[in-house]
Fold each of these.
Amino acid sequence: MSSALDRSETDRQRTQRLLDQRKSATERNRLGQFSTPTPLAVEMAQLALYYLPETSELRVLDPGVGSGVFFYALRKTAGARRLRAASGFEIDHEVANEAKRLWANLGLQVRLEDFCSAAPPPDDGLKATVIVCNPPYIRHHHLSATQKLELRQQVKRLGLRISGLAGLYCYFLLLAHRWLVDGGVGVWIVPAEFLDVNYGTVVKEYLTSQVTLHRLHRFDPEDVQFTDALVSSVVVAFTKTPPAAEQKVELTTGNRLSKPRVIHTVPLKELRPDCKWGPRFANGESRVADEGVLTVGDLFTVRRGLATGANDFFILERSKARLLGIPAEFLRPILPGPRYVKTEHIDRSPDGFPSGLPELVLLDCDLPLEAIREQYASLAAYLRQGERLGISKRYLPAHRVLWYKQEHRPPAPILCTYMGRQNGGRAMRFLRNRSDATAPNVYLLLYPKAALAEACEREPEIIDGLFSALTEIAAGLSHGGRIYGGGLNKIEPKELENIALPPWVQDRYGLAVACRQRRRWPSQATNGCLFE
């Protein structure tokens, strides 16, 4: 016979499905409402109790209680006798009322208020001994300027500075510090992006300086824990005590928190807040460069491709542009998306267009409207159509001097498809571009720096050799970038510039490590360096 606790949990799961159906996916995304699966909640509760002394009483807090899955998980795992108090915060009236209905008679106090605005208990005897939480995943752009200011001021009281780009989950985790008793345990499931993004630095600083970090478990990127939130997740477990000098942290990976596929231990001192932590979970060796190693950025400037602000207007089929009578002098060849490029080499047709690919053109004109109206009636008519469609008032066009003049992106000899899923192959790949086509912002463009460009003019085969080096490291690009839910890999320009090149590049092309050092210490000798 099932217990009253289990019957309430069955009721909760049914109620949660109904609550989810009453809101659109967009509204739930704005509110950050993504319910934790019960099996995962139970595993998180078990992890919290593992780090808590067996004799300690349980005073439970869930800052984002929702319908109460973590209360069920802790009560189920620890038993009723050990539970002394349990409370949770919820701002959604409907959800809070359901949580009260389900759990009030079993010991949960639901507070209908904003956790971030509430004052922590002044008495340590009233503070939580364990916090297990899935905080609301609300991105910063859904927070008002007033909210951000108040939240940042509260975090500042902890001696921490937080970026305005931080999501609400970062504030929840940091502000909960004052609600947890010394020696208490926190187990949180949060988006994995904090491991690698700049705004995550404050969370990493907190985890390495103000608490004893025990474990970080990253779920396999392909395994999204919340089916309606495309985000990869990390479980963070710590005790509220200052870290020991020789503290070590478990980094685990896999689809199950209780049965990780990969376990390895690293000294806490190696987890610097200003560095990316994501690569530390990689099975293979990360390609992120150590000090003194030749990198992509030593030889190339990496830029994102063209962002037009309205591709459907500014990028046309070449044949359509002809029919519209748009002068060829205001049209530039531009590559189609990566899915159309099946090989690693993009060859050049006699007229400069990429051979064997859809012929697309980019509208790019630097004449004022008055001159266009006087000299190019067909182009003027097309631009008037754009104004009627509101193209000129979109964000990017509206912020240009001439709304139809594109940013400067000449053809690049090497491109990188900087976003993709593994799917049994390479998530990201390099392309050798011999055409005169520029590229849209679904690519990264690699432009040789001045000295390399001069060397390539003397010896054109150098660029092909470097392309071979880049294809060699393509499989490891995801270690230097970011991984999102569903296995989506992405790498930003600066991240790509920090990727190490194979050691043979220096030997074959005379590109000494001193190239890098020369930029820092101009007086240092650079014998044998390409950048003389």
Note: The two ends are 81 Å apart (CA to CA).
Amino acid sequence: MNTFINTGRREFDELLPRVKAFLEHDVLEMNIDGVKVRGYRSPDSKAVWIRDHSDMIRAAKYFDSDLKSIVDHFAATQAANGRIFDYVTTYPEKLPCEKENWTKYVRVPVEADVEYRFIKAAWLTWQATGDDEWILGLIPHMQKALDYIFTHPHRIDPATGLIKRAYTIDTWDFAYTAENHPWLQFQIDENTFWGISHGDNSGYYEAMLIMDILNNYLKEKGLRRKDHVKTEEFREKVNEVCWNGRFYTHFVKLTPVVIEGVDEDNQLSMSNPMAINRGIADHEQAVSIINEYRMREEKTHAFAGWFSIDPPFPDGIFGDEKLVAGAYINGGIFPLVGGELAMAAFNHGFEEYGVEILRKYHQLISKNNETFLWYFPDGTPSSVEKSTSPDAMPTDGWGSSAMVWALTEGLAGIEDRLRRFEKVRISPRWLAAGVTRAQVRVEYAEGTGAFVGYEYSYNEQGVELKVEGGAEAEFHVLVGKEDVVNEVIMNNVRVLFGVEMIEQSQYVNFSGRIRDRADIRINFKR
């Protein structure tokens, strides 16, 4: 494995190889129409859901040389109106009654988030491969997916211009019916309660940003993106409708309905840290959301504050008696949320909190070398018997990949800003973890040889960085609050720098071109 982190601290050094091993158990290979299709399966069903896969490749891109085939397959099976399937499988799902190994496609009608996840999967795959011709071929599918979302009457609310959905728990796939349906309701019908979920809208905001970047990068090849709404106008509208002053309201109702027994206005749902990382929340909003999670972790005494939703809904009101408070999406503790929350913390001045999350996760998975999609607040892992899901794998790739993402791009701080590490931001935050020496290398596994690596050391005289790769680099280096920066020297030449305070954290910002290697010294005044 050419991607590694060496710090001398188990909680950081072991995370990449552990998650790689988890992901190796999560690969699903299918032969469909004579073509090998490979993707990452959901931890709770033997299928490749585009939502899980698009998040899981945030880690898999360092280990897997076939990221294209599943994206190509979802594009090839796109409906004429632009709709994307939720998942594909060739494996029997509901044994023993289902035995046929047919190829099966499913779109859950209440889902409104599938299209942006398809765009995100295409984007991350392009970043790893750098294949411009490939992404050019996908652009019409990506645009068609946005066209569907912004025009279909089941997806767009004409009054606000925002994306709507049935009343689900955050981004999940079954809707509240007020007991008008005998079990989990996946369909849209005359009893659907409509509303606006901030998670859908932050996802489409990020998808629009991706399309804007691709449009700018590929415009000389004739790409022109069709605008349904201006990107920043959309962001402003989401914040106007969904922000409640402390965090994003779980569900802004379009159909009036009251659910007795829960303070809906106070429900903090899992897409809040994702809203930070997708860029729809500004810094002040990010700080408010992070503080809300920290406060609730202390208040509820959960083993971790990675809530799917808090407070949960009353037991069983979504149609299944297993959906009690603290179970699954109804208040379960998700490592996926923890990874997103850690990433948000690293970027918004709560670096020690991000480190705490990574350490807690390492401790969790080290007990039995297992990781689950969700846990009860007391730390009991999910199981088939206590969930509506048909499976409960102990190698969850969804949450573990989010943790790797927070480690590599948050704590180690190597972020690809375009493709194949041609433009990067390097933000080592090791000081927040008490680490004074580190070796880091991240390399895409697609065979392009694209990588960035560095050796880092910190002492009272300053910071040394020995960087390898080939990139236009922005540096954003965490130093101590009391450190006074005197100069920044890159390859024996002084460079301009700035000092930035993010909350109580001090960063040194500068930029430069890395040509194979750059030796950097940040000197302090003493």
Note: The first strand starts at residue 4 and ends at 6.
